[in-house]
Write a structure and sequence with these properties.
Layout lengths: L1 H14 L2 H17 L3 H4 L1 H11 L11 H12 L2 H14 L2 H26 L2 E2 L5 E2 L2 H9 L1 H39 L3 H16 L2 H30 L4 H10 L16 H16 L5 H7 L6 H29 L16 H12 L4 H33 L4 H17 L5 H5 L2 H24 L1 H14 L5
Antiparallel strand pairs: 1-2
């Protein structure tokens, strides 16, 4: 087992090395350029469509604009927003947050492009529901043998990733957070997650859309309020912290307290890597959720979809990162491990010291639990679409049942023997590999279909000079 784990870990490091990060970031920069900075010019209109108008009456599709956005946010606003941001700052210093912002800003163009293609090439399946995403725009957009092979590979990798990073690692994170903070036994967490997940996903995308449309906004606001209170208490230091973030994005981060210092390369690497993990721009998942939306125009839904990256990275990740820096938690020593804080404990330390009383740790623990559970719901739909593409409609119900069983196991594993629980790291590493593998065919498709993206965009803007 140890040898297998080391091998998968090495593959994960290779897949998510500098070439992959450059490919993802480079694709975002290229799409930003050919779209002439569309994500900046149309951000206000996009937020209005997503949060104010929210739906398109009488249009073909399964769920509203807003529900499609919430489903995508459910899958992306997760452990990465709490533990991922903290890991980036712990390894790359405050400058890593700046590079997360850059990744998010160019990633908005990537997410926009995925949504345009997702809606443009979607199909109606045998149940009368919309099916779309990279597997469809690779097969139907690129066409030929290349499109068929890339579409198959994406669906295959997505199906595996749904059970790993989209399922077991999320339920495991919920069980860990509730056990460490509230002493809840993993068995009861496993049962609760399995029951709740089953009740939601057995109803399909319409139930997922309704639940996430109600649950996700409350979840995000709850966590954000905690972080904003910390920032308000330390508001006199906020400008200095922003200066520190920008300065140290381009200069080596000096050692401070428990922080050992970091190079500019580490700041870029960790900022880009954790930014991608958080918002999933480039992985292709955004196109799957967008394809279910009720819309007559691919571009209109794409405007809504790109706000997901903005909310995830520029808003939620920023609150986490600024809270960690402004409280000085990133320089402190964890008395339990004897080394600097990192991951979720670092965020918990920031909230605990930044807020009065004992509220901080509870907010982070509940936030982590809610975020992880919502990610599980969003990925349930992504995996379902991948399985249906590979095996047909008959596979949907068995998949949903297996997904619920996997969610139970992911949480219950914490109650097993220690050596068995440690083996769960293999699932994390394998999931990372599948995520990276998903990105490769998707990015190839985005680059080869970039002309379709620009043509759709120009046509829509010409026909709707007054966007509202």
């Amino acid at each position: 087992m140890e040898r297998i784990q080391l091998s998968i870990g090495a593959i994960s490091s290779l897949v998510w090395g500098v070439p992959m990060l450059l490919l993802i970031l480079g694709t975002g920069v290229y799409l930003t350029w050919i779209l002439r900075g569309l994500q900046f010019r149309e951000l206000g209109h996009s937020l209005w469509l997503a949060l104010v108008k929210r739906k398109e009456e009488g249009a073909e599709g399964d769920i509203s604009h807003f529900q499609a956005l919430m489903t995508a946010l459910a899958a992306t606003v997760g452990v990465g927003n709490i533990a991922g941001v903290a890991t980036a700052i712990a390894a790359g210093g405050p400058g890593a947050l700046f590079w997360m912002w850059i990744t998010g800003l160019v990633g908005m163009a990537t997410k926009y492009s995925e949504a345009v293609l997702g809606v443009r090439y979607r199909e109606v399946d045998g149940r009368g529901q919309m099916a779309g995403g990279p597997m469809y725009y690779l097969r139907n957009g690129l066409g030929g043998k290349l499109g068929a092979v890339l579409g198959f590979l994406f669906a295959l990798f997505a199906a595996f990733a749904a059970f790993g990073i989209g399922n077991m690692v999320q339920s495991n994170s919920v069980a860990d957070a509730l056990q460490s903070t509230f002493d809840v036994r993993p068995f009861w967490t496993a049962v609760t997650i399995a029951v709740l997940t089953g009740c939601v996903i057995l109803g399909g995308i319409r139930w997922i859309g309704r639940v996430t449309g109600f649950f996700v906004p409350i979840m995000i606001v709850f966590y954000m309020l905690g972080g904003l209170v910390v920032l308000f208490i330390h508001r006199s230091e906020l400008l200095e912290v922003l200066r520190l973030v920008i300065t140290e994005a381009f200069t080596p981060t000096a050692a401070a307290g428990g922080f050992l210092g970091a190079t500019v390369r580490e700041a870029i690497r960790w900022g880009v890597a954790r930014g991608v993990f958080s918002n999933e721009s480039g992985l292709g998942t955004g196109g799957i959720a967008a394809a279910a939306a009720q819309t007559r125009e691919p571009v209109r839904q794409a405007f809504v979809s790109m706000t997901q990256t903005f909310i995830d990275t520029i808003v939620v990740c920023s609150i986490t990162g600024l809270t960690i820096i402004i409280t000085g938690a990133w320089t402190r020593i964890d008395p339990i491990t004897g080394s600097a804080y990192t991951g979720a404990p670092l965020t918990a330390e920031a909230f605990q010291t930044g807020l009065p009383g004992e509220w901080g740790a509870a907010i982070v623990a509940l936030g982590l639990a809610f975020f992880a559970f919502s990610t599980l719901l969003g990925w349930a739909y992504y995996g379902e679409r991948a399985i249906e593409y590979l095996l047909g409609e008959w596979s949907i119900l068995p998949y949903r049942i297996l997904f619920v069983v996997a969610a139970f196991f992911g949480a219950f594993v914490l109650q097993l023997a220690e050596e068995q629980a440690q083996g769960f790291q293999l699932v994390w590493d394998f999931s990372d590999v599948m995520n990276g593998a998903m990105a490769i065919p998707n990015l190839i498709g985005l680059l080869l279909l970039s002309r379709v993206i620009t043509e759709e965009t120009r046509s829509y803007l010409a026909r709707h000079p007054k966007r509202r």
